[in-house]
Specification:
It is a single chain. By secondary structure, the chain is of the alpha/beta class. It is built from seven helices and eleven strands. The protein has a single domain, classed as Rossmann fold, CATH 3.40.50.300. Strands 7-8-9-3-10-11 form a six-stranded mixed beta sheet, sandwiched between helices. A five-stranded antiparallel beta sheet has the order 2-1-4-5-6, covered by helices on one side. A hairpin with a 4-residue loop joins strand 5 and strand 6. The two termini are about 20 Å apart.
């Protein structure tokens, strides 16, 4: 269960959002500036609501009344930002291993490498990787933290079509292969349909609707990639 009930001010912009979703994969969907990334940053602990509650399953991350506000490092979340934020002087292997908990097995590492198709990239540094490859390494690093949930901020943004489809296919494999709560920020209907089970439509800092994926699919009039209507 994903529980969000937050009030957050960013300058003149006010975010007031309340929802509860049992979905394993929730998309925060809306136009630029609607508040979806601010919501994700609040979940990650990088923005601080003035009141409310944030919980993922049994893990309470923020509760204003109970004075709970876990720092980002204690939230046990895997976060992937648009810019990936890899260490430029580390190889892909070193970036992947960064932040892995003690006791993590070689099998876990190998499974993530295989899932994301990273075997041939492990010795390369970020400057030797394409945009899509960098994004996949960042996703792998987040997974290897063994998080309670994965947060994805526009994971396909600024990628050319071929790289976008490649990363999307790996994310779909992740959804099938990992029983991991995922919260996705997107303004692209096709990737929402491919990756989410439930969709929170956000407009001007408010929840406009909380739809299951079939309701969202039916409401979409045009997609960037129509063949993805078969995705799920």
């Amino acid at each position: 269960m994903i529980e969000l009930d937050i009030a957050l001010d960013r300058g003149e912009f006010a975010l007031e959002l309340a929802l509860a979703s049992p979905a394993r994969a929730l998309a925060l969907f809306g136009h630029s500036g609607c508040g979806k990334t601010s919501t994700l940053l609040a979940i990650a602990g990088l923005l601080h609501p003035r009141k409310g509650r944030i919980a993922i399953g049994e893990h309470v991350l923020f509760d204003g009344d109970a004075r709970i506000d876990l720092p980002p490092a204690r939230r046990e979340l895997g976060v992937v930002f648009q810019d990936a934020r890899l260490f430029p002087h580390f190889t892909a292997r070193e970036n992947l291993r960064y932040g892995m908990p003690r006791g993590a097995t070689a099998t876990a590492f190998d499974d993530v490498v295989q899932l994301l198709g990273l075997s041939a990239l492990l010795k390369r540094r970020p400057g030797q990787l394409s945009g899509g490859q960098i994004r996949r390494v960042a996703i792998g690093r987040a997974l290897l933290r063994q998080p309670h949930a994965l947060l994805l901020d526009e994971p396909l943004a600024n990628l050319h079509r071929e790289a976008r489809m490649e990363v999307l296919e790996h994310l779909r494999g992740l959804k099938r292969g990992f029983a991991l709560t995922t919260i996705l920020v997107s303004h692209q209907p096709d990737e929402v349909i491919a990756l989410a089970d439930s969709v929170a439509r956000i407009e001007d800092g408010r929840l406009a609707a909380l739809d299951d994926i079939e309701t969202f699919r039916a409401s979409v009039k045009s997609l960037d990639a129509p063949h993805l209507l078969a995705a799920g």
